[in-house]
Amino acid sequence: MIDTLIPIAVDLTAAMNTRDRYQRLIDTLKRAIPYDAAALLRIDGDRLIPVAARGLSADAMGRHYARKDHPRLDIICNSGEPVRFPDDNSLPDPFDGLLVADPDALGNIHACLGCPLRVDDTLVGVLTADALDPKAFDHLDHRFLIAVGALAGAQMQTARLIEALEHSAERQGQIAIDLMQDIVRQHGTQILGGSPVMDHLRREIDLVARSDFTVLVLGETGVGKELVVRAIHQRSTRADRPMLYLNCAALPETLAESELFGHTKGAFTGAGRDRTGKFELADAGTLFLDEIGELPLSIQAKLLRVIQEGEIQRVGSDKMIRVDVRLLVATNRNLETEVNDGRFRADLFHRLNVYPITVPPLRARRADVPMLAGYFCERTQRRLGLGPVRINPDAHELLTGYRWPGNVRELENIISRAVLKASSGLPRGGPVVIRPNHLGGDLSSGQTKETRGIQLSEPIFSKGFSLSTETRNFQRQTIRRALENNQNNWAAAARDLGMHRSNLHNLATRLNLRQKMKQTKRGR
To answer: What pTM did the predictor assign?
Structure first.
């Protein structure tokens, strides 16, 4: 087993990013520990957050595991050495129903072990391993597991320190801060997703955050523009200063100038005292103007002066006040079109468009849907006080096949409703399983032209219904629609479906769709 420990020790000094470092650790342990699923989780207060896994379903990575809700994890955290749970242990396993090898198991007895990861007696994380064979871990030497825990703890600490150096080396005195942990702690700053477009988005955020540039965040409604703005602020040199928020769409034109720049007592009817505007309040910090495309033209000219000169003037005052504010703005409008139509000033647009970032729609990153769904399941579970919530494989297929015109916000709403529907009539604390009939009505009612005519929920009540047959039919119809909308261009259809082209070809072959399409062409 020494052959397993050596690569882990060597990786301590290897140059690699945090994600690869964690994943290498999990993959290396597979050589000596015959697990079906393993996870590396880091401590964040009273929660455990997965940072790497193997053998677990994708939505497991979107969940946070509170120690009070998961007694096995709590026992591991409180232990000073590795813990092997007996096969007859009745405590629920946090990953029941989430193992790829047995996704339908909600309470199967299997082998389970966990190692608390400590550095200088401080708990930094937990390593868990599960196997369907109850005897899978019986042969493992306890001293070997202790060594694994020590090295894994050192790996996690190394990754934490490197991450802190990468993100905040320019801020003296804070080199040891784990910036990722700080961001996750802040409400509304977590950006989930491992797809290439989200990796690119995170790189863009990291790049521009270090500057003081004005950032224009673009994207459809519901994609998470505010999350991106908060992530930029948290990674910036102004993170220790407040970020103020103002929704321009909610501003009446008569009050917009006062809200932004403030006013003096008696400046207008109702101005009974001096008022400090958002720009003054945000001095030395950051101001986030949401829905900037809704700002009245009369206010746009005044905003332009602030950006150009760094000065504001309160309503009713002749005094100019210098302000140092980083400006972050967001909109779901096409500002270039607004400029051409005379609804937005061209000079202001160019001042705001210093560094544009476009947040991708959910249909462009469908591989992230399971992780996001898992996150929303866990959040709804807590809100409703339910037992473990799982999504069955057929429901996962419907979720990843939908085009999501309402983006992440629509996914959150549908998952919340589905959890509530699935929990109906269940005993309190019992497992909740989301099935297609809990999603069908929501998905079919919001169909776009690409999926028009596909019936999702009606077959549930049909005589002789076969779920596997209906799922295959759904896949065939969806692929046909995508090909029709892209003039039978398979590469373009694959992009619309959020798949790699080769995977689409393989799926079409398994569904016998390519052969049927060839026969249809010959028959014309």
So the answer is: 0.61
